[in-house]
């Protein structure tokens, strides 16, 4: 009964926003390759040289990387190892954009989100039919007076951060931030029904407690956490379990403006597994969606490098006799479409399946402890190995030693 009450309250709160439709709460639920996949024969335009230069000067200015994806990204093991490798070499620029409140089935490599019960209702764009979600696809609705969130570091750190809220407010609200050194307060001005990043609060440490003194119609979409030094690599992992590329169509029109505000230097699209498992997938429509997405990214972020990460190898029909029959029906076609779309958009493409060893290679990875028993997802070691492959590929493309 309490769950039903929360859902009804959520719908009423969201419907109070201009142009909004109600949404309900969501239930979230071979042999290893020895070398990196070969580089594509085409080259991205001068953006590669620009990005290479930024890596070489990362001690003086930040490099912002944003990865969109499905469950392979939501676990932040694959992206987490990429973050670790890049930050170890080029400096820790911060944590990036994370959800505002805990998301069941999703984790962050560097931080843990905690909230008290019955303070928030989280809604995911995974399977909700609304076009009001923010960048990243998670929406947190206050369900109590002055709800709070605590952000803790997984490992002790003395690093200081600058923090901004991604929010939407019908009326002005107040955000209170407390760390071990004291208390800060900032006003979150009314946004006219749009998602916006709030004022930046600097010199904050973890753990950090954030309390929202909210008015009706205030929603949170996430926290953007940068290093105080304004240098090094910032790597945001925006993954949703079960997501496809089309999940971005549920984000509020203009979400690209929020993306541009973050000024990404590298945008990674890591979707494809869930498309591949859909036997009824309209391949022509998927191809059009992907091309349009890449075209829009090129228009909105003309100086950024765009990288498509193909889906990893997987097996759907375990008892089928041939390797081809064991594979998801659409997997080969999804990889083909991604490769072609990347070439046409002058973007990079990394073939994750090829790196693993080709078709049905995940069986070998599972036997070696690198893939899980579902023959879809990898273990922590498998994701780390894959990240090392992508890291090597990216460095090769950028000409970095």
From TrEMBL:
Cross-referenced Gene3D superfamilies: 2.60.120.1360, SGNH hydrolase
Name of the protein this chain belongs to: SGNH/GDSL hydrolase family protein
Species for this entry: Pseudomonas donghuensis
Residues of the Peptidoglycan O-acetylesterase N-terminal domain: 93-200
Keywords, ordered alphabetically: Hydrolase, Signal
Pfam families cross-referenced by the UniProt entry: Ape1_N, Lipase_GDSL_2
GO MF annotations in UniProt: hydrolase activity, acting on ester bonds
Classification via InterPro entries: Ape1_N, SGNH_hydro, SGNH_hydro_sf
Family matches, as SUPFAM superfamilies: SGNH hydrolase
Cleaved signal peptide residues: 1-25
Annotated SGNH hydrolase-type esterase domain residues: 233-384
């Amino acid at each position: 009964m309490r769950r039903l009450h929360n859902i009804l309250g959520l719908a009423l709160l969201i419907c109070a926003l201009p142009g909004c439709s109600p949404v309900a709460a969501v239930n979230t639920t071979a042999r290893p390759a020895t070398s990196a996949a070969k580089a594509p024969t085409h080259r991205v335009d001068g953006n590669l040289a620009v990005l290479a230069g930024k890596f070489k000067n990362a001690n003086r200015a930040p490099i912002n990387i944003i990865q969109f994806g499905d469950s392979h990204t939501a676990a932040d093991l694959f992206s987490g190892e990429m973050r670790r490798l890049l930050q170890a070499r080029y400096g820790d620029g911060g944590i990036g954009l994370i959800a505002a409140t805990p998301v069941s089935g999703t984790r962050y490599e560097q931080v843990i989100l905690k909230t008290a019960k019955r303070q928030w209702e989280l809604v995911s764009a995974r399977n909700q039919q609304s076009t009001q979600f923010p960048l990243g696809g998670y929406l947190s609705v206050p369900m109590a007076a002055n709800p709070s969130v605590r952000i803790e570091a997984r490992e002790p750190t003395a690093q200081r951060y600058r923090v901004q809220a991604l929010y939407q407010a019908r009326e002005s609200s107040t955000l209170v931030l407390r760390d071990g050194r004291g208390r800060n307060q900032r006003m979150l001005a009314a946004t006219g029904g749009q998602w916006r990043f709030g004022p930046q609060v600097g010199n904050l440490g973890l753990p950090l407690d954030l309390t929202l003194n909210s008015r009706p119609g205030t929603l949170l979409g996430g926290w953007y956490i940068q290093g105080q030094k304004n240098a090094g690599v910032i790597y945001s992992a925006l993954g949703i379990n079960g997501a496809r590329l089309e999940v971005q169509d549920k984000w509020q029109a203009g979400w690209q403006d929020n993306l541009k505000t973050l000024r990404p230097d590298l945008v990674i699209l890591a979707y494809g597994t869930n498309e591949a498992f859909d036997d009824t997938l309209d391949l022509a429509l998927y191809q059009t969606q992907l091309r349009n997405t890449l075209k829009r990214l090129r228009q909105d972020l003309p100086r950024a490098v765009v990288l498509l990460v193909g889906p990893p190898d997987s097996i759907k029909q375990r008892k089928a006799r041939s390797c081809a029959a064991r594979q998801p029906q659409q997997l080969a076609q999804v990889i083909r479409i991604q490769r072609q779309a990347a070439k046409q958009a002058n973007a990079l493409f990394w073939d994750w399946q090829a790196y693993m060893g080709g078709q049905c290679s995940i069986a070998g990875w599972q036997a070696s402890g690198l893939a899980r028993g579902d023959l879809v997802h990898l273990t922590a070691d498998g994701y780390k190995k894959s990240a090392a492959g992508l890291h090597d590929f990216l460095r090769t493309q950028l000409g970095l030693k």
